[in-house]
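Side project, low priority. Logging it here so it doesn't get lost.
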Amino acid sequence: MADERSYFMSYQKRWLDDESRVKIWEKSRRIGATYVAAFEDVRDANRGCVPACWFSSADETAAREYIEYCVKWASIYKIAAESLGEQVIDEKAGIKTYQVLFANGIKIHALSSNPKAFRSKGGKVTLDEFAWHDDAKGMWAAARPCITWGFPLRILSTHHGVNSQYNQFIQKVKKGKLNWSLHHTPITVAVDDGLADKIAKRKLTLEERLAWLEQERQSVADDAVWAEEYLCQPQDEATAFLTYEMILKLQRDGILMPLSECGGELYAGMDIGRRHDLSVIWVFERVAGMLITRQVIVLRQMPFANQRKVLYDLLRNLNVRRCCIDQTGLGMQLAEEAQQKFGTYRVEPVTFTGPAKEEIAYQVKAMADDRLLVIPEDFDIREDLHSLRKVVTAAGNIRFDVNSSDSRQSHADRFWGMGLAVHAASTAGFTTPEILTRRDFKKGHDSRPIFGPPGEQLLTRLDRRLGAPVRAF
Protein backbone atom coordinates (compact mmCIF):
# COMPACT_ATOMS: atom_id res chain seq x y z
CA MET A 1 0.00 0.00 0.00
CA ALA A 2 2.92 2.27 -0.82
CA ASP A 3 0.99 4.84 -2.84
CA GLU A 4 -1.85 5.18 -0.31
CA ARG A 5 -1.15 8.87 0.35
CA SER A 6 -2.03 9.83 -3.22
CA TYR A 7 -5.70 9.15 -2.53
CA PHE A 8 -6.07 11.55 0.38
CA MET A 9 -6.08 15.22 1.22
CA SER A 10 -3.85 16.72 3.90
CA TYR A 11 -6.36 16.50 6.76
CA GLN A 12 -7.04 12.84 5.92
CA LYS A 13 -3.30 12.12 5.83
CA ARG A 14 -2.91 13.73 9.26
CA TRP A 15 -5.54 11.34 10.57
CA LEU A 16 -3.80 8.32 9.02
CA ASP A 17 -0.36 9.38 10.25
CA ASP A 18 -1.59 9.71 13.83
CA GLU A 19 -1.04 6.36 15.55
CA SER A 20 -2.36 7.43 18.95
CA ARG A 21 -4.31 4.74 20.76
CA VAL A 22 -7.40 6.98 21.05
CA LYS A 23 -8.22 9.57 18.39
CA ILE A 24 -11.28 11.81 18.25
CA TRP A 25 -12.21 13.79 15.15
CA GLU A 26 -14.25 17.00 15.38
CA LYS A 27 -15.29 17.37 11.78
CA SER A 28 -17.51 18.93 9.15
CA ARG A 29 -20.08 16.95 7.20
CA ARG A 30 -19.09 15.18 3.96
CA ILE A 31 -15.32 15.66 4.03
CA GLY A 32 -14.44 11.97 3.63
CA ALA A 33 -13.81 11.09 7.28
CA THR A 34 -15.65 7.73 7.17
CA TYR A 35 -13.93 7.05 3.86
CA VAL A 36 -10.46 7.36 5.37
CA ALA A 37 -11.54 5.54 8.56
CA ALA A 38 -12.52 2.57 6.38
CA PHE A 39 -9.09 2.64 4.74
CA GLU A 40 -7.38 2.67 8.15
CA ASP A 41 -9.40 -0.37 9.26
CA VAL A 42 -8.58 -2.26 6.04
CA ARG A 43 -4.90 -1.43 6.49
CA ASP A 44 -4.88 -2.56 10.14
CA ALA A 45 -6.81 -5.74 9.40
CA ASN A 46 -4.52 -6.59 6.49
CA ARG A 47 -1.44 -6.05 8.64
CA GLY A 48 -2.88 -8.31 11.32
CA CYS A 49 -2.16 -5.79 14.09
CA VAL A 50 -5.69 -6.09 15.58
CA PRO A 51 -7.79 -9.22 16.19
CA ALA A 52 -10.92 -7.58 14.71
CA CYS A 53 -12.36 -4.18 13.75
CA TRP A 54 -15.74 -3.15 15.13
CA PHE A 55 -17.47 -0.20 13.47
CA SER A 56 -20.76 1.44 14.40
CA SER A 57 -22.55 4.49 13.02
CA ALA A 58 -25.82 6.20 13.90
CA ASP A 59 -27.87 4.23 11.35
CA GLU A 60 -27.77 1.07 9.26
CA THR A 61 -27.29 2.81 5.91
CA ALA A 62 -24.05 4.37 7.16
CA ALA A 63 -22.85 0.92 8.26
CA ARG A 64 -23.51 -0.49 4.79
CA GLU A 65 -21.73 2.46 3.16
CA TYR A 66 -18.71 1.86 5.37
CA ILE A 67 -18.53 -1.79 4.33
CA GLU A 68 -18.70 -0.72 0.67
CA TYR A 69 -15.71 1.55 1.32
CA CYS A 70 -13.82 -1.35 2.91
CA VAL A 71 -14.51 -3.62 -0.09
CA LYS A 72 -13.41 -0.83 -2.43
CA TRP A 73 -10.10 -0.36 -0.60
CA ALA A 74 -9.44 -4.10 -0.56
CA SER A 75 -10.08 -4.19 -4.31
CA ILE A 76 -7.85 -1.19 -5.07
CA TYR A 77 -4.92 -2.74 -3.22
CA LYS A 78 -5.68 -6.31 -4.34
CA ILE A 79 -6.04 -7.51 -0.77
CA ALA A 80 -7.52 -10.97 -0.40
CA ALA A 81 -10.83 -10.20 1.29
CA GLU A 82 -14.40 -11.30 0.94
CA SER A 83 -17.60 -9.48 1.77
CA LEU A 84 -19.83 -11.79 3.81
CA GLY A 85 -22.80 -9.43 3.56
CA GLU A 86 -25.35 -9.20 6.34
CA GLN A 87 -24.99 -11.57 9.30
CA VAL A 88 -27.36 -11.93 12.24
CA ILE A 89 -25.38 -12.28 15.46
CA ASP A 90 -28.27 -12.01 17.94
CA GLU A 91 -31.67 -12.79 16.44
CA LYS A 92 -33.53 -12.26 19.69
CA ALA A 93 -32.07 -8.77 20.21
CA GLY A 94 -32.28 -7.95 16.49
CA ILE A 95 -28.54 -7.36 16.23
CA LYS A 96 -26.94 -7.82 12.84
CA THR A 97 -23.59 -7.01 11.29
CA TYR A 98 -22.07 -6.52 7.85
CA GLN A 99 -18.73 -8.30 7.56
CA VAL A 100 -15.57 -8.36 5.46
CA LEU A 101 -13.30 -11.40 5.95
CA PHE A 102 -9.57 -11.14 5.18
CA ALA A 103 -7.32 -14.00 4.15
CA ASN A 104 -5.56 -13.85 7.52
CA GLY A 105 -8.85 -14.61 9.27
CA ILE A 106 -9.44 -11.10 10.62
CA LYS A 107 -12.89 -9.60 10.14
CA ILE A 108 -14.20 -6.07 9.89
CA HIS A 109 -17.68 -5.80 11.40
CA ALA A 110 -20.08 -2.93 10.74
CA LEU A 111 -22.65 -3.10 13.53
CA SER A 112 -26.05 -1.61 14.14
CA SER A 113 -26.29 1.25 16.61
CA ASN A 114 -27.57 -1.02 19.37
CA PRO A 115 -25.09 -0.82 22.30
CA LYS A 116 -25.67 -4.51 23.04
CA ALA A 117 -23.85 -5.32 19.79
CA PHE A 118 -20.53 -4.45 21.46
CA ARG A 119 -20.99 -6.71 24.46
CA SER A 120 -18.31 -9.44 24.78
CA LYS A 121 -16.35 -8.06 21.83
CA GLY A 122 -12.66 -7.19 21.63
CA GLY A 123 -10.46 -5.37 19.15
CA LYS A 124 -10.25 -2.03 17.40
CA VAL A 125 -13.37 0.17 17.74
CA THR A 126 -14.56 2.97 15.44
CA LEU A 127 -17.59 5.01 16.52
CA ASP A 128 -18.84 7.03 13.55
CA GLU A 129 -21.21 10.02 14.00
CA PHE A 130 -21.01 9.31 17.71
CA ALA A 131 -22.90 12.49 18.71
CA TRP A 132 -25.92 11.24 16.75
CA HIS A 133 -26.32 7.82 18.36
CA ASP A 134 -29.69 7.45 20.07
CA ASP A 135 -27.96 6.18 23.20
CA ALA A 136 -24.43 7.56 23.05
CA LYS A 137 -23.74 6.97 26.74
CA GLY A 138 -24.94 3.38 26.50
CA MET A 139 -22.87 2.88 23.36
CA TRP A 140 -19.79 4.24 25.10
CA ALA A 141 -20.33 2.03 28.14
CA ALA A 142 -20.55 -1.03 25.88
CA ALA A 143 -17.79 -0.14 23.39
CA ARG A 144 -15.04 1.20 25.65
CA PRO A 145 -14.23 -2.20 27.30
CA CYS A 146 -13.51 -3.65 23.82
CA ILE A 147 -10.12 -1.89 23.77
CA THR A 148 -9.05 -2.85 27.30
CA TRP A 149 -6.13 -4.93 26.01
CA GLY A 150 -4.54 -1.96 24.31
CA PHE A 151 -6.45 -1.88 21.03
CA PRO A 152 -7.12 1.40 19.17
CA LEU A 153 -10.29 3.49 19.50
CA ARG A 154 -11.53 6.01 16.94
CA ILE A 155 -14.37 8.50 17.47
CA LEU A 156 -15.49 10.74 14.62
CA SER A 157 -18.57 12.91 14.38
CA THR A 158 -20.19 16.20 13.56
CA HIS A 159 -21.61 18.04 16.54
CA HIS A 160 -25.11 17.61 17.93
CA GLY A 161 -25.57 20.24 20.64
CA VAL A 162 -23.34 21.31 23.49
CA ASN A 163 -24.66 18.72 25.92
CA SER A 164 -23.86 15.62 23.86
CA GLN A 165 -21.52 12.96 25.21
CA TYR A 166 -19.32 13.62 22.19
CA ASN A 167 -18.93 17.34 22.94
CA GLN A 168 -18.20 16.55 26.58
CA PHE A 169 -15.31 14.39 25.38
CA ILE A 170 -14.10 17.19 23.08
CA GLN A 171 -14.11 19.71 25.93
CA LYS A 172 -12.24 17.34 28.26
CA VAL A 173 -9.57 16.77 25.62
CA LYS A 174 -9.18 20.52 25.09
CA LYS A 175 -8.82 21.04 28.85
CA GLY A 176 -6.23 18.27 29.13
CA LYS A 177 -8.48 16.01 31.18
CA LEU A 178 -8.35 13.23 28.56
CA ASN A 179 -5.07 12.22 26.96
CA TRP A 180 -6.57 11.64 23.53
CA SER A 181 -5.48 12.93 20.15
CA LEU A 182 -7.90 15.57 18.82
CA HIS A 183 -8.34 16.40 15.13
CA HIS A 184 -10.35 19.52 14.20
CA THR A 185 -11.51 19.88 10.59
CA PRO A 186 -14.24 22.44 9.87
CA ILE A 187 -15.26 22.85 6.24
CA THR A 188 -12.96 25.87 5.89
CA VAL A 189 -9.89 23.77 6.76
CA ALA A 190 -11.02 20.99 4.43
CA VAL A 191 -11.35 23.48 1.56
CA ASP A 192 -7.91 24.92 2.31
CA ASP A 193 -6.57 21.36 2.08
CA GLY A 194 -8.13 20.75 -1.33
CA LEU A 195 -11.69 19.49 -0.82
CA ALA A 196 -13.31 21.89 -3.31
CA ASP A 197 -10.47 21.23 -5.78
CA LYS A 198 -11.12 17.50 -5.59
CA ILE A 199 -14.84 17.99 -6.11
CA ALA A 200 -14.19 20.29 -9.10
CA LYS A 201 -11.44 17.92 -10.37
CA ARG A 202 -9.06 20.81 -10.95
CA LYS A 203 -6.94 23.31 -9.05
CA LEU A 204 -9.09 26.22 -7.89
CA THR A 205 -8.03 29.79 -7.21
CA LEU A 206 -8.53 31.31 -3.77
CA GLU A 207 -11.48 33.30 -5.09
CA GLU A 208 -13.07 30.14 -6.49
CA ARG A 209 -12.63 28.33 -3.19
CA LEU A 210 -14.26 31.21 -1.30
CA ALA A 211 -17.10 31.30 -3.83
CA TRP A 212 -17.59 27.54 -3.40
CA LEU A 213 -17.78 27.94 0.39
CA GLU A 214 -20.28 30.79 0.10
CA GLN A 215 -22.43 28.77 -2.28
CA GLU A 216 -22.45 25.87 0.17
CA ARG A 217 -23.36 28.18 3.06
CA GLN A 218 -26.18 29.77 1.10
CA SER A 219 -27.58 26.37 0.13
CA VAL A 220 -27.63 25.24 3.76
CA ALA A 221 -29.64 28.42 4.57
CA ASP A 222 -29.97 27.70 8.31
CA ASP A 223 -27.03 29.34 10.08
CA ALA A 224 -27.33 27.10 13.12
CA VAL A 225 -26.94 24.04 10.89
CA TRP A 226 -24.00 25.61 9.06
CA ALA A 227 -22.25 26.50 12.32
CA GLU A 228 -22.81 23.12 13.96
CA GLU A 229 -22.45 20.64 11.12
CA TYR A 230 -19.89 22.44 8.96
CA LEU A 231 -17.92 24.78 11.24
CA CYS A 232 -17.68 22.41 14.24
CA GLN A 233 -19.49 24.87 16.55
CA PRO A 234 -22.01 23.04 18.76
CA GLN A 235 -25.19 25.03 19.25
CA ASP A 236 -27.05 25.62 22.49
CA GLU A 237 -30.47 27.06 21.77
CA ALA A 238 -31.44 26.69 25.43
CA THR A 239 -29.35 29.75 26.38
CA ALA A 240 -30.11 31.90 23.32
CA PHE A 241 -32.45 34.77 24.21
CA LEU A 242 -33.83 34.66 20.66
CA THR A 243 -33.54 31.22 19.08
CA TYR A 244 -32.84 30.69 15.39
CA GLU A 245 -36.33 29.27 15.01
CA MET A 246 -37.83 32.46 16.43
CA ILE A 247 -35.60 34.74 14.33
CA LEU A 248 -36.24 32.88 11.08
CA LYS A 249 -40.00 33.34 11.52
CA LEU A 250 -39.52 37.13 11.59
CA GLN A 251 -37.46 37.39 8.43
CA ARG A 252 -38.75 38.74 5.14
CA ASP A 253 -36.94 39.71 1.97
CA GLY A 254 -37.36 43.06 0.20
CA ILE A 255 -38.63 45.09 3.18
CA LEU A 256 -35.85 47.71 3.31
CA MET A 257 -36.57 50.96 1.50
CA PRO A 258 -35.81 54.70 1.55
CA LEU A 259 -37.69 56.40 4.37
CA SER A 260 -39.06 58.94 1.90
CA GLU A 261 -41.15 56.12 0.43
CA CYS A 262 -42.69 55.18 3.80
CA GLY A 263 -46.14 56.57 4.41
CA GLY A 264 -46.63 55.37 7.99
CA GLU A 265 -45.22 56.38 11.36
CA LEU A 266 -41.53 55.61 11.83
CA TYR A 267 -39.76 54.68 15.06
CA ALA A 268 -36.00 54.57 15.47
CA GLY A 269 -33.42 53.30 17.94
CA MET A 270 -29.69 54.03 18.06
CA ASP A 271 -27.10 51.99 19.92
CA ILE A 272 -23.88 54.01 20.04
CA GLY A 273 -20.31 52.75 19.74
CA ARG A 274 -17.05 54.20 18.49
CA ARG A 275 -13.87 52.14 18.49
CA HIS A 276 -14.74 48.54 19.26
CA ASP A 277 -18.54 48.46 19.13
CA LEU A 278 -20.75 49.36 16.21
CA SER A 279 -23.20 52.23 16.14
CA VAL A 280 -26.48 50.92 14.79
CA ILE A 281 -29.60 52.88 13.83
CA TRP A 282 -32.69 50.71 13.37
CA VAL A 283 -35.87 52.14 11.86
CA PHE A 284 -39.32 50.52 11.97
CA GLU A 285 -42.49 51.54 10.16
CA ARG A 286 -45.74 50.75 11.93
CA VAL A 287 -48.07 48.99 9.51
CA ALA A 288 -51.35 47.43 10.65
CA GLY A 289 -50.07 47.01 14.19
CA MET A 290 -46.77 45.43 13.08
CA LEU A 291 -43.29 46.94 13.13
CA ILE A 292 -41.61 46.43 9.77
CA THR A 293 -37.90 47.17 9.43
CA ARG A 294 -37.23 49.81 6.80
CA GLN A 295 -33.58 50.64 7.48
CA VAL A 296 -30.66 49.21 9.46
CA ILE A 297 -27.77 51.66 9.37
CA VAL A 298 -24.46 50.23 10.65
CA LEU A 299 -21.74 52.78 11.44
CA ARG A 300 -18.35 51.16 12.01
CA GLN A 301 -15.64 53.27 13.72
CA MET A 302 -17.29 56.45 12.44
CA PRO A 303 -16.32 59.78 14.09
CA PHE A 304 -19.07 61.23 16.29
CA ALA A 305 -19.47 64.30 14.07
CA ASN A 306 -20.35 62.01 11.17
CA GLN A 307 -22.64 59.90 13.35
CA ARG A 308 -24.45 63.08 14.42
CA LYS A 309 -25.03 64.04 10.79
CA VAL A 310 -26.50 60.62 9.97
CA LEU A 311 -28.79 60.80 13.01
CA TYR A 312 -29.93 64.36 12.31
CA ASP A 313 -30.69 63.55 8.68
CA LEU A 314 -32.95 60.80 9.97
CA LEU A 315 -34.69 62.98 12.54
CA ARG A 316 -35.45 65.69 9.97
CA ASN A 317 -37.92 63.23 8.47
CA LEU A 318 -41.14 64.27 10.22
CA ASN A 319 -42.56 60.75 9.93
CA VAL A 320 -40.00 59.67 12.54
CA ARG A 321 -42.29 60.05 15.54
CA ARG A 322 -39.89 58.90 18.23
CA CYS A 323 -36.24 57.90 18.52
CA CYS A 324 -34.64 56.27 21.57
CA ILE A 325 -30.88 56.77 21.83
CA ASP A 326 -28.38 54.95 24.02
CA GLN A 327 -26.92 57.65 26.27
CA THR A 328 -24.69 55.29 28.25
CA GLY A 329 -21.07 56.49 28.28
CA LEU A 330 -20.09 57.71 24.84
CA GLY A 331 -23.66 58.36 23.74
CA MET A 332 -24.58 60.91 26.42
CA GLN A 333 -23.60 64.05 24.53
CA LEU A 334 -25.06 62.90 21.22
CA ALA A 335 -28.36 61.91 22.84
CA GLU A 336 -28.68 65.16 24.81
CA GLU A 337 -27.89 67.35 21.80
CA ALA A 338 -30.37 65.46 19.62
CA GLN A 339 -33.08 65.91 22.26
CA GLN A 340 -32.38 69.64 22.53
CA LYS A 341 -32.53 70.08 18.76
CA PHE A 342 -35.53 67.89 17.94
CA GLY A 343 -37.55 68.02 21.14
CA THR A 344 -38.30 65.84 24.16
CA TYR A 345 -41.35 64.33 22.48
CA ARG A 346 -39.33 62.89 19.60
CA VAL A 347 -35.99 62.01 21.22
CA GLU A 348 -35.61 59.96 24.39
CA PRO A 349 -32.13 59.28 25.81
CA VAL A 350 -31.96 55.82 27.45
CA THR A 351 -29.38 54.76 30.02
CA PHE A 352 -28.55 51.08 29.69
CA THR A 353 -28.89 50.00 33.30
CA GLY A 354 -29.55 46.34 34.08
CA PRO A 355 -33.30 46.86 34.58
CA ALA A 356 -33.54 49.03 31.43
CA LYS A 357 -31.83 46.37 29.32
CA GLU A 358 -34.09 43.70 30.76
CA GLU A 359 -37.22 45.73 29.99
CA ILE A 360 -36.12 46.44 26.41
CA ALA A 361 -35.02 42.85 25.77
CA TYR A 362 -38.34 41.45 26.94
CA GLN A 363 -40.26 44.01 24.88
CA VAL A 364 -38.44 42.61 21.84
CA LYS A 365 -39.11 39.02 22.85
CA ALA A 366 -42.81 39.66 23.45
CA MET A 367 -43.16 41.27 20.02
CA ALA A 368 -41.17 38.42 18.45
CA ASP A 369 -43.31 35.79 20.15
CA ASP A 370 -46.43 37.48 18.76
CA ARG A 371 -44.82 37.74 15.28
CA LEU A 372 -45.28 41.52 15.32
CA LEU A 373 -41.73 42.28 14.17
CA VAL A 374 -40.48 41.93 10.59
CA ILE A 375 -36.71 41.95 10.01
CA PRO A 376 -34.52 41.61 6.90
CA GLU A 377 -33.04 38.33 5.69
CA ASP A 378 -29.46 39.15 6.59
CA PHE A 379 -26.76 36.83 7.95
CA ASP A 380 -25.07 39.42 10.18
CA ILE A 381 -28.40 40.56 11.66
CA ARG A 382 -29.46 36.97 12.29
CA GLU A 383 -26.19 36.06 14.03
CA ASP A 384 -26.16 39.31 16.03
CA LEU A 385 -29.69 38.75 17.32
CA HIS A 386 -28.89 35.11 18.11
CA SER A 387 -25.69 36.02 19.98
CA LEU A 388 -27.53 37.49 22.99
CA ARG A 389 -27.59 35.20 26.03
CA LYS A 390 -29.57 35.67 29.25
CA VAL A 391 -27.50 34.86 32.34
CA VAL A 392 -28.85 34.66 35.88
CA THR A 393 -26.16 35.59 38.40
CA ALA A 394 -25.65 33.91 41.77
CA ALA A 395 -27.47 36.85 43.36
CA GLY A 396 -30.50 36.19 41.18
CA ASN A 397 -29.95 39.19 38.92
CA ILE A 398 -30.41 38.94 35.14
CA ARG A 399 -27.50 39.89 32.93
CA PHE A 400 -27.31 39.85 29.13
CA ASP A 401 -24.06 38.56 27.62
CA VAL A 402 -22.92 37.84 24.09
CA ASN A 403 -21.83 34.52 22.65
CA SER A 404 -18.65 35.58 20.85
CA SER A 405 -18.69 32.56 18.53
CA ASP A 406 -21.66 33.91 16.58
CA SER A 407 -21.56 37.65 17.25
CA ARG A 408 -19.85 38.56 13.92
CA GLN A 409 -17.54 41.18 15.54
CA SER A 410 -20.49 42.83 17.24
CA HIS A 411 -21.61 42.93 20.84
CA ALA A 412 -25.27 42.43 19.97
CA ASP A 413 -25.25 46.07 18.79
CA ARG A 414 -27.87 45.35 16.13
CA PHE A 415 -30.06 43.71 18.76
CA TRP A 416 -29.89 46.76 21.04
CA GLY A 417 -30.45 49.16 18.14
CA MET A 418 -33.56 47.17 17.25
CA GLY A 419 -34.56 46.99 20.91
CA LEU A 420 -34.38 50.75 21.29
CA ALA A 421 -36.57 51.14 18.19
CA VAL A 422 -39.11 48.72 19.66
CA HIS A 423 -38.95 50.71 22.90
CA ALA A 424 -39.53 53.93 20.96
CA ALA A 425 -42.66 52.45 19.38
CA SER A 426 -43.94 51.05 22.66
CA THR A 427 -43.52 54.36 24.51
CA ALA A 428 -44.98 56.44 21.71
CA GLY A 429 -48.37 56.80 23.35
CA PHE A 430 -47.45 60.20 24.73
CA THR A 431 -50.00 63.01 24.67
CA THR A 432 -49.89 64.80 21.36
CA PRO A 433 -49.97 68.62 21.66
CA GLU A 434 -53.19 70.12 20.32
CA ILE A 435 -53.61 73.65 18.98
CA LEU A 436 -56.97 75.11 19.89
CA THR A 437 -58.57 78.46 19.14
CA ARG A 438 -60.01 80.58 21.96
CA ARG A 439 -63.52 79.69 20.84
CA ASP A 440 -62.78 76.05 21.70
CA PHE A 441 -62.69 77.00 25.35
CA LYS A 442 -66.10 78.67 25.21
CA LYS A 443 -68.91 76.28 25.86
CA GLY A 444 -71.24 75.86 22.96
CA HIS A 445 -68.81 77.00 20.30
CA ASP A 446 -67.55 74.59 17.64
CA SER A 447 -63.83 74.40 17.00
CA ARG A 448 -62.64 76.02 13.78
CA PRO A 449 -60.12 74.13 11.66
CA ILE A 450 -57.07 76.16 10.62
CA PHE A 451 -56.61 74.99 7.06
CA GLY A 452 -55.10 76.76 4.11
CA PRO A 453 -51.47 77.83 3.59
CA PRO A 454 -51.16 79.99 6.77
CA GLY A 455 -52.48 77.21 8.98
CA GLU A 456 -50.34 74.57 7.36
CA GLN A 457 -47.21 76.69 7.80
CA LEU A 458 -48.05 77.24 11.46
CA LEU A 459 -48.52 73.50 12.04
CA THR A 460 -45.24 72.72 10.34
CA ARG A 461 -43.36 75.25 12.48
CA LEU A 462 -44.99 73.96 15.68
CA ASP A 463 -44.39 70.38 14.67
CA ARG A 464 -40.68 71.05 14.35
CA ARG A 465 -40.53 73.26 17.43
CA LEU A 466 -42.24 70.82 19.76
CA GLY A 467 -40.69 67.76 18.20
CA ALA A 468 -44.04 66.00 18.00
CA PRO A 469 -47.02 65.77 15.66
CA VAL A 470 -49.55 68.55 16.12
CA ARG A 471 -53.28 68.16 15.56
CA ALA A 472 -55.37 71.17 14.53
CA PHE A 473 -59.05 71.65 15.34
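Brief comment: The CA atoms of residues 251 and 418 lie 14 Å apart.
Revisit when time allows.
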